[in-house]
Amino acid sequence: MTTDWILVRRMATELDRALRGARVTDAGLLDDGRIAIRLQRGRTATTLAIDPFGTPPGVALTEAELALAGDPGWVRAAATALRGMRLTDVTARRGDRVLVLTFGSSSRFGVESGARLVLELVPRYGNVVLLRDRLVIAAAKQFSPAENEARSVQVGMPYEPPPLPPGAPAIPRVLAESAAVSGGDPAALLARAETAAAEDAPVHVYRDEGRVVAAHVVPLAQHAALAHATAPSLLDVFADARAERNDARRDDAQERARAALLARIAKRARATASELGGVEQRFAASAEREALRRSGDALFTHAHEVPQSASAFVAPTDPELTIALDPDLDAKANAQQYFARYRKATAALPHLEKRRATLLARRDALDVLAFEAERADAPTLPELQNELDALEGRAPQRASAPAARRRAPLRLERPSGARIYVGRSPRENAEVTFRIARPDDLWFHARGIPGSHVVLQAPPGAAVDDADLDAAADAAATHSKAKHAPRVEIDYTERKYVRKQRDAPAGLVWYTNARTRVGRPSGDTIRTYDKP
């Protein structure tokens, strides 16, 4: 299924109808890497999911919440600029696959401000750019004139939209094919399509064995042999097509096993979060223990001043403290109750602190297991299932894959002679860090989020250079939960400063003496070997 500028215009029509007047509450990334704007209109909250780098690029409305992982810097800047603004309109650039979302706000003093979010939904060249007064204030991708002779996109500089192709607005290819098959007039068909897109006419959907093949605002003669139906929303059709692609990945046994494991991890994560919330509430209650002690002391000191059957008392020596009393007890008995509650709250603190530390470690371990399950190959899935069993206090239920079937860590050769090793599972992470790496080798990991362990070994008899450091940081970014972000903060330190976490899944470590570099995710590698 593909898009063209007519369909992007239809997207603008539907988004304007659904979101006009909605207030931005937040912005970030979804778990699948899509850029997300969270909006509230009345009591209804929705998420605008933007996929400028997808196949095809597009947008959708979803109920998904923002991911917990840290967002890239440009997304944080966009969230800061847009939060609290209202969406005033959505328009499309005629002849091009560009959407423009206009936001505005007014302060209590009547000062107006605004911003525009430009979605360039062009295959292979997608981008998201936030503007204020034509100046770029945030962008998913930045590039200078040296990188692109046609135009540049840089923060602080004026924005130039993508150049229109010669002869724009051209008739989209799918409409030209339809006109050729039916013998109709291409110009007339284009005019009909533009009118249908603006008037919110039904969308024509073509399916092959239930799968969406094509959709448009006018009938497509070249797909007459396929199952044909109409739908009220193009956004829903694109969401269905995306869901079908995702479902296709789950058709085989490996994907079903992955889905079952992820469901188990999510269930355990919810239970952990619930228990952690209860512990935090008990912590908040225990924080009042100082007031309990003060109340007991005040009652003992001023016992003779407390009236009989009083329900409250304010001590002259502590006038800011109002002490609730049991009217059936005298002052000293009330004081003894306060001291008993104080001792109980104090005695519970060490247990609460220990339990909170355990739950926080479990939450982090489950986050790592979920990340690893998303990218695991077939032999790694049973290992992750055993890790989850151990985390839940159960004996492992599955045999690990034979060593002959396990893939080796990824190895990249650098032109300088340096080597980069990348772990792509908990077992590989442990192997890279604690078997392959030498004490003074550099160890890299995405900062604060799940990701691969990456080790950089210097060339024989030489030191690593900046290009090698950048390559290792890029590898750590590419193999991390933030792989869809344009920039990722990467911590690195000498291997001798990395140690295993006790009673944690394989690959979870502590490290010290870290420095930080910026990694840029990429699918590029230099040279890959099957064995280290």
Total of domains: 4
Distance between the termini: 41 Å
List unreliable stretches of 5+ residues: 524-532
Mean pLDDT: 88
Rg, alpha carbons: 30 Å
Beta strands, count: 23
Helix content: 25-40%
* Shape by Cα distribution: globular
Total helices: the number is 11
The structural class is alpha+beta
Numbering strands along the chain, what is their spatial order in the largest sheet? 22-19-17-18-16-15-23
Question: Could you describe the largest sheet, including whether it forms a barrel?
Answer: 7 strands, antiparallel
| Strand composition percent | 15-25%
Key terms:
disordered C terminus, 5-stranded antiparallel beta sheet, ibrinogen binding protein from staphylococcus aureus fold, 11 helices, 23 strands
Write a structural description.
- With 532 residues, the chain is of the alpha+beta class.
- The protein has four domains: 135 residues, ibrinogen binding protein from staphylococcus aureus fold (Roll), CATH 2.30.310.10; 77 residues, no CATH class; 137 residues; 122 residues, no CATH class.
- The chain has eleven helices and 23 strands.
- Strands 22-19-17-18-16-15-23 form a seven-stranded antiparallel beta sheet.
- Helix 6 runs antiparallel to helix 8, helix 6 packs parallel to helix 9 and helix 7 runs antiparallel to helix 8.
- It is globular, with a radius of gyration of 30 Å.
